[in-house]
Write a structure and sequence with these properties.
- The chain is of the alpha+beta class.
- It has 4 domains: 86 residues, Alpha-Beta Complex (DNA Primase, Chain A); 132 residues, DNA primase, catalytic core, N-terminal domain (DNA primase DNAg catalytic core, N-terminal domain, Alpha-Beta Complex), CATH 3.90.980.10; 191 residues, Dna Topoisomerase Vi A Subunit, Chain: A, domain 2; 186 residues.
- The chain contains 28 helices and 20 strands.
- Strands 1-2-3-4-5 form a 5-stranded antiparallel beta sheet. It has a 5-stranded mixed beta sheet with strand order 13-12-14-15-16, sandwiched between helices.
- It is globular and about 105 Å long.
- It starts with a helix and ends in an 8-residue tail after the last helix.
- Bound molecules: zinc ion (ZN).
- Zinc ion binds next to loops.
Length: 649
Amino acid sequence: MIPRDTIDTIISTVRIEEVIGDFVVLRRRGVNMLGLCPFHNEKTPSFTVSPAKGIYKCFGCGKAGNAVNFIMEHEHFSYPEALKYLARKYNIEVEEEEQTPEQLQELNEKESLYNLNQFAQQFFSRTLLETNEGKAVGWSYLRERGIRDDIIQKFQLGFSPSAWDAFSQHAAKNGYKKEYLIKTGLSLEKENRLYDRFHSRIIFPIHSASGRVIGFGGRILSAEKTHAKYVNSPESEIYNKSKTLYGIFFAKNAIISKDNCYLVEGYTDVISLFQAGIENTVASSGTSLTLDQIRMIRRYTTNITILYDGDPAGIKASFRGIDMIVEQAMNVMIVLFPNGEDPDSFARKNHPDEVDRFIKENAVNFILFKTRLLLDETRNDPIKKAGLIKEIVNTIALIPDGISRSLYIHECSALMTVSEQVLMVEMNKILRARLKKSLKEEGSEENEIIPEPEVIAEPQKDFDTDSPGSQEQEIIRLLLLYGQDIIHLKMDNAADTGVPVMVADYVVHVLLRDEMVFENPVFGKIYEFYLDGVRKDAIPDRNFFLTHPDLELSQTAVNLVFSPYELSKNWYKNNILITTEESRLLLHVEHSIHAFRARKLEKMMTEIRRKLANAETAEEQTILMKQLGELKKQSIRINREGLGRIIIK
Ligand SMILES: [Zn+2]
């Protein structure tokens, strides 16, 4: 039990922005701080922390609370565990009674597993540093590999004795239950006896992002082929391989400050690089990279650099996994170590500065790396080359951002000596097929969850300029496609270079000024997000809508974004053909706003004329005539503005 006054000290000492800042990159926004919510998958930050109030709230999923709640929720800790975690972070001493066997029994299962792992870690560390066997076998091995004592301590490396059941016996003597020894995988049961899974191995404890030991990796020292070189803890309630990155606890601050995460294969790669001062390194330890691991990294940075030993077969095998990173809108760089070297051996042979320089100088963008590697294999074989083009375009099509996609198409077209046009056509095919598939999947999934079919949004009809609502649709499509693009508005004279504004900013300002509202409820909903974005200076990107949990909304956005459509190449103004992309965009924006307003005014005037025809008193008629006059004036004004510039006030 933690005494009450200690709890008060902890709560009054913690700073919520520091506690959450260990897990979420927070940026100041006024008096609050804003970041990507760690509790739901989002691409536009809606997770708000108030340092003054000591609380957080996510406007996306609704999770809210104080620092203790955050740690409980995020780390799946109990209340006392969260308090202990915070006490450790702020060096507050928690005086607790030693746990008796009875107390141990009372702890819930998860806590028992964590407890046992911590107990085991301490046992393995002591064995390594304090026993004759540990020092002679384990410690001297680590020393031979040049691992310093401070690094051994930091990563809590250990050694498990060669006796078959040394740890199991020690744990049983200290009141740890057989059930948990088996669940954590520390012990194996055979003919009613417990044996140590890790006996005579170097121990690498695996830590959660908050620093708790959730599992172990053990490396054998003998060269016997009968034993696996590495064994790992089995999955348990507290250890899920696909959600774990080795080294994340030690690396996360460096990942945030360097805005880059180095990804390696093994425990020793992480440790050797860390010793060389390259602390932003984690390992996926054996398993191929999972989506959960990528999202874990994405909490801290959008840049991943993958460090490979120079084996092309291994690299090719990992391409699929890397595609997944690309799909998460992250930038992936590849570093290839010289033949026969892995990050571990390279870091041991070279001076830390050289290691750092080598990584920086040899980092190549993944898509270009992949293109070059595959290009090497195709030589001049046209059939193989066709396959290569498909393969590369497939990867580029995964990038959520359209501008980045076209940049890569440009680069790769030069590398492969294939025209951009050909690549574009191929990419659009893939995008369409993927979209169809995802809509089908979404549809069927939805059917399973929600029995009433009418909940599913009707697919949008093809764009038809004359149908009612088409102007609304056009504005929304424009926002989705170009909302974050910059246009330059000329304010006074033609010589002026213009004021840069985002398309969404511009559209929202004009519509607000003219008090224009949307009739179609879904378009209205989408517009509201832009309105809010402009007010908060955080205009949502297209993916926000494409991946929105509101199915009606996301389907509408998907339909608008993917229907065949492009800026007309033949805009004329004063009989001059407008050729640059931006001028065409500007004209297009103005045209769309104009059409939208004209349509609205027309509708309002028709409505007033109808009322006028039915008006019974002269007074009523006068009022309506006045309204009609106002609308006519507006109509003349916007028609005069026409395709010219629209003035923002
Ligand atoms: Zn959330």
